[in-house]
Specification:
The complex is a heterodimer of chains A (332) and B (246). With 332 residues, chain A is mainly alpha-helical. Helices cover 73% and strands 0% of the residues of chain A. Chain A has one domain: Orthogonal Bundle (ABC transporter involved in vitamin B12 uptake, BtuC), CATH 1.10.3470. Chain B has one domain: Rossmann fold (3-Layer(aba) Sandwich), CATH 3.40.50.300. Classes of the chains: A mainly alpha (332), B alpha/beta (246).
């Protein structure tokens, strides 16, 4: 048999089913589906439209930030400041609108704040060589403190002339009765997935996570890209903050506390590797979904809410365990 | 005419004289073995040609024209390609993605340009075929043998019209059979008129594939002669200092 050039070019290492079974994200999807099926039969309250509406909407805030975090984690970095950035962005939006400015200006100010913080993180990490963990840990403290300063640590629940517009933005359901935050999440997930798979920027992000030194040697603009991923991460926190503000109808200085851990958990459960080089948009969404389904089910099954941390922590370990088992098999 | 010509190149880092007054010229289609002990100045010399840092003194000329480099990217634009010792590969990407890293092919117009996977797989496949390598474009580098990884790193140098390829210890960490593969790859480059500088510790490799050998010791060039007129014993003597200079 003559070997033509097309055979090696077309050759794929694994067939589609084999790739599917080897993917952590696939098993997490199965886990989510199984959990949902189980809950539909075991409880009356799960498969009601009201509960599903709540679940899908609750997924979104973690999911949106997890999408941004995915960029950072693929480069091998981490962003611990997202919870605080969410709080600060919400507060900037709330304070600006409370002062009588329009929703457009409020959102602009809020997004600008998030981007500035992301750029600050990114520059320290990429140009001055600070460890991402330390920089964003510092920012975790700084951003929340700034939110307290901006609001004098009060609750803001009146958003000036565009009050109703903001509440509709976050709390409405403009298309087919699907909660607005869900629509935003789907849109952002599509953009993220497209960017990671089809753009040069996305390719370079994976290259940096795989081998930063190699990326630099081959002419990838490593520093600029690192700044960009921290800006994207902060931006996603800002967007989630705006939507959450619209949904809650009030902003306190403790919203988003501890959220960074949920977000990182979601990305890791979804298949991203904290060592860098691996991660998908779909995985981030699925990871966020699994966490929310676990939380929701504990409530419906009448299990004490104090157990929540055990189950979510267990899910993180289980997800990574799959990855370890595959690696053990490969190294044997 | 020489493709690359160095004249009285020196480089010092503070008080340390890493390269001292080295002149050499390399012809197209020639394989030059660059040998020397650790700290002899080989890497420093190569890094200057690669644009990692400028020489303290002396000048470089490429095809007769003055060559001043500030960044590695500029060296590449002039047709100087480097195969790094650690190969500079990303394990999490496919062979094709690694070949095109930093030079991805795209299609579309203006800002709406997306990665052209099909063309990259095709072109990478053609290069591997040219190199007579069994490497497949869609395979992940993670799962490749040392020889295949070398092929990926070398395939990079064939994307553009390279004039000179610098290879840093390409046979240092691979099996005997794979060394033969890599030496074949070097011959393929040579046959296309590309000048190859092979930095190596391994005497047999240099004497198998090189036309000329340059020996460095303590920052100076101590020998520059054809393989036919030298011997492994002589080169060993030159490297260690048992033979002062030829």
């Amino acid at each position: 048999m003559a070997l033509t050039i097309d055979q090696p070019i077309e050759h794929k290492q694994q067939t589609l089913p084999a790739r599917l079974f080897a993917s952590q994200t696939f098993w997490v999807v199965i886990a989510v589906i199984v959990a949902c099926l189980f809950l539909s039969f075991a409880t009356d309250a799960f498969a009601t439209s009201k509960n599903l509406y709540n679940i899908t909407r609750n997924i979104t805030f973690v999911a949106i930030i997890a999408l941004g975090m995915t960029f950072v984690i693929i480069t091998g970095g981490i962003d611990l400041s997202v919870g605080s950035v969410l709080c600060l962005s919400s507060m900037v939006l709330a304070v600006t609108m409370h002062a009588g400015y329009s929703i457009e200006i409020g959102i602009l100010a809020s997004i600008a704040t998030a981007l500035a913080i992301g750029a600050f993180n990114g520059v320290l990490i990429a140009y001055l060589g600070f460890p991402p963990f330390v920089v964003t840990l510092g920012m975790l403290s700084i951003a929340r403190s700034l939110a307290m300063v901006a609001s004098n640590n009060t609750v803001v629940f009146q958003f000036g002339p565009d009050h109703d517009k903001l509440l509709a933005l976050g709390g409405g359901a403009w298309v087919f009765g699907i909660a607005n935050p869900v629509l935003y999440t789907i849109l952002l997930a599509l953009i993220t997935g497209f960017t990671l798979r089809w753009t040069k920027f996305g390719r370079h992000i994976f290259a940096i996570g795989g081998n930063e030194h190699a990326a630099r040697l081959t002419g990838v603009p490593v520093r600029q890209i690192k700044v960009a991923v921290y800006m994207i991460s902060a931006l996603s926190a800002g967007i989630a903050g705006i939507i959450q503000t619209g949904w809650l109808g009030a902003v306190t200085t403790n919203i988003g506390t501890g959220m960074e851990l949920q977000v990182i958990a979601a990305t890791v459960i979804g298949g991203a590797n904290l060592a860098g080089g691996v991660g998908t948009a779909f995985g981030a969404i699925v990871g966020a979904a699994l966490i929310e389904v676990i939380r929701n089910s504990l409530g419906l099954l009448g299990i004490n809410a104090f157990w929540q941390g055990v189950f979510i922590g267990g899910a993180i370990l289980m997800a990574v365990l799959f990855d370890r088992i595959r690696n053990f098999r490969r190294s044997d | 005419m020489a493709v690359l010509e160095l004249t009285n190149i020196s480089k010092h880092f503070g008080a340390i004289q890493a390269v001292n007054d080295v002149s050499l010229s390399i012809e197209p289609g020639q394989v030059v073995g660059l040998m020397g002990d650790n700290g002899a100045g080989k890497s420093t010399l190569v890094k200057m040609i690669a644009g990692n840092f400028p020489p303290s003194h002396g000048s470089m000329r490429m095809d007769g024209k003055e060559l001043v480099l500030h960044k590695p990217v500029e060296a590449r634009q002039h047709g100087i390609e480097i195969v790094h010792q650690d190969l500079a590969l990303c394990n999490n990407l496919t062979a094709a993605a690694n070949v095109f890293l930093g030079r991805e092919l795209r299609r579309g117009v203006g800002p709406f340009r997306i990665l052209d996977y099909a063309s990259m797989y095709k072109r990478a496949g053609q290069i591997f075929a040219e190199l007579k390598s069994e490497t497949r474009p869609r395979d992940l580098v993670k799962q490749m043998s040392g020889g295949q990884r070398q092929a990926v790193a070398i395939a990079r140098t064939m994307l553009s019209q390279a004039k000179i390829v610098l290879m840093d210890e390409p046979t240092a960490a691979i099996s005997v059979r794979q060394v033969a593969e890599v030496l074949n790859l070097i011959r393929h480059l040579r046959d296309q008129g590309i000048a190859v500088v092979l930095i190596s510790h391994r005497m047999p490799d240099v004497f198998t594939v090189a036309d000329r050998v340059i020996v460095m010791r303590r920052g100076r060039k101590v020998a520059d002669k054809t393989i036919a007129s030298s011997s492994p014993e002589e080169v060993t003597g030159l490297i260690t200092g048992a033979i002062e200079q030829v």
